[in-house]
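Here is the promised in-class demo. Please do not try to memorize the tokens; focus on the logic of going from shape to residues.
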């Protein structure tokens, strides 16, 4: 057994239900990440629900990890977008750092696809991911790159898409061209993968490691063009506006097919 797992088992046990943190009561543990432990909590005064993130105690023993946690809080403080949970509070409790975020009720894409078996048509998938692209555009305009756009980190609440978990997000100076380009392409690639996840919800054949999505999925040529550029198969996109344009073209083409 690796020592890192032993360390986590000893130091990183989730807090018990009804534990009081500052003015928040733990209702349940929502998840355990590589760096943080996430809880659904309620305010002991108002009863309002919030999400509270704790730096893993084993990570908190290292100065660099404590600084990284502070940087994450600082980054969240700069965000002001309805599709991203707002930073509410931060505090130290029993020498452990925490921060509090807005709670967004809903289901993440992973649960919708793999546990609820929700299906998305090609047009539905592009429409839904168009909302996600708007969030990515907002972040990139502020030189912030999420770098971890995955099904568990995309929540659908009342028909609206929200992006969560900024633990791996990067704020990059505008003049650092190489880093900006690399992180931008990482987000574009992840965005393309998200579209594929939704498109595969309607795949009825048997997946094969020997076949690619190009062979398994029957898609409109405009959707194929979009995905090839996002995934780096064709010349990659340089700007979000280019993706937006091709996404709209693909959606319009699919709408025309529906009306034929």
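The designed amino acids, position by position:
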């Amino acid at each position: 057994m690796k020592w890192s797992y032993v360390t986590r088992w000893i130091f990183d046990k989730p807090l018990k239900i009804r534990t009081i943190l500052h003015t928040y009561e733990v209702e349940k543990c929502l998840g355990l990440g590589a760096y943080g432990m996430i809880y659904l909590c309620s305010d002991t005064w108002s009863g309002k629900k919030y999400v509270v993130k704790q730096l893993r105690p084993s990570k908190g023993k290292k100065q660099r990890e404590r600084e990284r946690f502070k940087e994450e809080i600082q980054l969240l403080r700069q965000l002001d977008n309805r599709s991203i949970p707002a930073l509410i509070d931060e505090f130290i409790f029993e020498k452990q750092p925490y921060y509090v975020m807005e709670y967004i009720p809903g289901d993440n894409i992973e649960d919708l696809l793999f546990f609820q078996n929700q299906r998305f048509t090609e047009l539905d998938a592009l429409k839904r991911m168009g909302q996600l692209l708007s969030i990515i555009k907002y972040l990139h305009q502020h030189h912030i790159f999420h770098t971890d756009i995955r099904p568990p980190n995309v929540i659908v609440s009342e028909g609206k898409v929200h992006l969560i978990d900024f633990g791996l997000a990067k704020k990059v100076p505008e003049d650092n061209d190489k880093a900006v380009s690399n992180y931008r392409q990482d987000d574009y690639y992840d965005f393309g993968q998200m579209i594929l996840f939704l498109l595969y919800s309607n795949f009825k054949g048997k997946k094969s490691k020997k076949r690619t999505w190009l062979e398994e999925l029957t898609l409109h040529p405009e959707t194929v063009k979009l995905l090839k550029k996002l995934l780096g198969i064709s010349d990659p996109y340089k700007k979000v506006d280019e993706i937006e344009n091709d996404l709209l073209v693909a959606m319009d083409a699919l709408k025309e097919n529906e009306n034929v």
